[in-house]
Amino acid sequence: MSVTIYEAAVPALTLNLQNLHNILAKAAAYAAERKVEDATILGLRLFPDMLHLARNVQVACDLSVRGAARLAGVDLPSFPDDEATIADLQARIAKARDFINSIPVDKFDGAETREVSLMAGQAPLKFHGKEYLADFVLPNVYFHVTVVYANLRGVGVPIGKMDFLGNLRLAA
């Protein structure tokens, strides 16, 4: 039995976005309890030369949405980067998740060999769909979600591995 690009992409991307949403909910509760302003949470960085937390959320959403769109051969949506609160970031995540889930399954037909070209900074990249998903989209999404998790865990937000992994489909 082979796995389709849709089966490999959409559940993984939507699960990561849902987990990110849930992690941010715990961050919001933590901030409210300690009277920490959202701007402080959104500005967290692991190191001064790294992206702040809000930007990591935006990038995780953009990579998920653009990855699914490119694999499905549909127009790339664009979201403004104007989130100023944790709730704003959660709304962006919901928009990203809704977009991905709105793509008809049949749009992913042939995605394994669909040519994907993009720019990463100044570098042009070219992939076939299967490599694009496995070597670019999923590792980048996991990276940015991990950075958000690490920032929040590092300041004491009570999250753990199961928050990162989310709802595992355990065998009965």
Automatic annotation (TrEMBL):
Q: Which Pfam family, just one, is annotated for this protein?
A: DUF1993
Q: Which InterPro entries match?
A: DinB/YfiT-like, DUF1993
Q: Identify the domain of life.
A: Bacteria
**PANTHER family on file:** BLL2446 PROTEIN (PTHR36922), DUF1993 DOMAIN-CONTAINING PROTEIN (PTHR36922:SF1)
- What is the official name of this protein in its record? DUF1993 domain-containing protein
Q: What is the lineage of its organism?
A: Bacteria, Pseudomonadati, Pseudomonadota, Alphaproteobacteria, Sphingomonadales
